[in-house]
Design brief:
The protein is α/β, with parallel strands linked by helices. It contains ten helices and twelve strands. It has helices at 45-63, 98-106, 115-127, 185-188, 190-196, 203-211, 215-239, 248-251, 254-266, 283-293, and strands spanning 3-10, 14-21, 34-39, 67-75, 78-79, 85-86, 110-114, 134-139, 143-149, 152-154, 244-247, 274-276. The strands form three sheets. The protein has a five-stranded mixed sheet with strand order 3-2-1-4-7. The termini are close together.
Length: 306
């Protein structure tokens, strides 16, 4: 019998789903045997859950998996006990119990958490350092952070720790129009970066134009880096993580990492390293698998998988 884990990175525009077999020690692996990236339905809720379920079925057939052990989901919002998310402006209708729906369909435990949190768990496993301290910062459609202190994922009193998009800088924090996705996110979201360069219509074009030396594009990236660095400096002042790992479609670009490090140095933190995740787009999926593995509801099979 082949048993496997499922990890899901639930994003605002696309959902990344991966499958990985149980290893000899029951640990979450650092590679996927198969994966799919599918568009996230705008409606969210039941429509999204059906897309996820059908994709899992496909991955199980492809890998000849007989049974799942557990499912982990990272979503761009604050996880709730009912299996949905709040503070998730990029996920459509999330007033839906993803956990119960998928658990019933596949008869396994389902764990959900913020996408940056699960990506941070993936980084922790990759580091192999049980006492590591760092902040994983995802910059893409929006911005979020997963915080690891001395090997522990910090979730906060209402499971909203790391929602740095709501740090009150970048836009007027008293304007209720900026409460939907947060003042900082209003300054660093992907659509804002694209709009900052008048000659570009997409984030990709901003990076392409910056590489070609176009001043407006380079200024747009520098402004993006400066606002992100302000957020990192705020995190340093409060929890002193010691290092940052960048991920996401925007954060994983070296063209952004270097100026972030520059601005962080100018803000008085020359000894805090900023690096790009080595796990790439699979980081959040692998982290979601680790989230499932840590679930107290999971009944681990004995011995190696067959």
């Amino acid at each position: 019998m082949t048993r496997a884990w499922i990890g899901i990175d639930l994003g605002g525009t696309k959902t990344h789903i991966g499958i990985a077999p149980l290893d000899d020690g029951g640990h979450a692996p650092l590679s996927l045997t198969a994966e799919r990236v599918v568009p996230t339905p705008r409606a969210g809720g039941a429509a999204l859950c059906e897309v996820i379920g059908a994709t899992i079925d496909e991955l199980m057939r492809q890998t000849q998996t007989d049974r799942l052990i557990g499912i982990g989901i990272g979503g761009a919002g604050v996880p709730q006990a009912d299996g949905g998310f709040t503070a998730a402006p990029n996920l459509g209708d999330t007033a839906f119990d993803f956990g119960s729906a998928l658990s019933s369909r596949f008869e396994v435990p389902v764990e959900i958490d913020n996408d940056a949190n699960v990506a941070a768990l993936g980084e922790l496993v990759a580091l192999g350092d049980e006492q590591a301290s760092f902040g994983y910062v995802a910059v893409g459609t929006g911005i979020g952070m997963g915080l690891i202190l001395e090997g522990r994922l910090i979730r906060g009193a209402s499971l909203a720790a790391g929602e740095i998009g709501y740090i009150p800088v970048g836009a007027d924090p008293l304007d209720t129009a900026n409460h939907r996705r947060g003042a900082l996110e209003e300054a660093v979201a992907g659509d804002v970066l694209a709009a900052r360069d008048p000659g570009a219509s997409t984030v990709r074009e901003v990076f392409e134009r910056a590489a070609a030396g176009v001043p407006e594009a380079r200024e747009a990236l520098d402004a993006q880096a400066r606002w992100v660095a302000y957020a990192l400096a705020t995190v340093i002042a409060v929890v002193d993580p010691g290092a940052f790992v960048l991920g996401g479609g925007i954060g994983s670009r070296e063209e952004l990492r270097a100026p972030i490090q520059h601005w962080l140095e100018r803000l008085g933190h020359p000894d805090v390293p900023v690096r790009i995740s080595t796990l790439g787009s699979a980081g959040a999926v692998l982290g979601a698998i680790e989230l499932a593995r840590r679930s107290p509801s999971v009944s681990m099979p004995t011995g190696a998988h067959q």
